[in-house]
């Protein structure tokens, strides 16, 4: 184990594959120097400006995504507020930090109340499917 890997393991509370506190054993996989460099170069996941960087690198793909976004949110039978609340529920399920930020603000701008946001969050706990998938895992063993 390299010194850097050992330092990371200690920071997470592990030493030589054994936990320092209670818990399951932890084994760190060795990584290549290139992987370590890539990991160090990654910007924080919550930096929404990363979308602008992606648009510069892959403009055609982002134009396609933006066209889809416009079509999905255009005026129709479902009011904008409800579309944004649905998008927020999906963002909570997929855990997309950008989507959470964008659709929370858009829902509020479309007239969503704190109560509607709270109910959307509570409803999302159900639609995540953890109870269903968990019960399937407990099926025939």
Mean pLDDT: 75
Q: What fraction of residues sit in β-strands?
A: under 5%
Rg, rounded, reads: 21 Å
- Give the name of the CATH architecture of the largest domain: Up-down Bundle
N→C terminal distance: 37 Å
CATH class designation of the largest domain: Mainly Alpha
Helix-strand category: mainly alpha
Report helical residue fraction.
55-70%
What fold name goes in the CATH topology slot of the largest domain?
AhpD-like
Element pattern in H and E: HEEHHHHHHH
Shape, per Cα inertia axes: extended
User: Helix count, per DSSP?
Assistant: 8
Number of strands: 2
Task: Throw out a few tags for this protein.
141 residues, AhpD-like, mainly alpha, 2 domains, 2 strands, 3% strand
How does this structure look, described?
The protein has 2 domains: 3-41, no CATH class; 50-135, AhpD-like (Up-down Bundle). The chain contains 8 helices and 2 strands; from the N terminus they run H-E-E-H-H-H-H-H-H-H. By secondary structure, the chain is mostly helical. Strands 1-2 form a two-stranded antiparallel sheet. The radius of gyration is 21 Å and the shape is extended.
Topology, please?
Layout: H1 3-11, E1 14-15, E2 18-19, H2 33-41, H3 50-57, H4 59-73, H5 80-94, H6 97-109, H7 114-127, H8 130-137
Antiparallel strand pairs: 1-2
Helix pairs in contact: 3-4, 5-6, 5-7
Short description:
The protein has 141 residues and is mainly alpha-helical. It has eight helices and two strands.
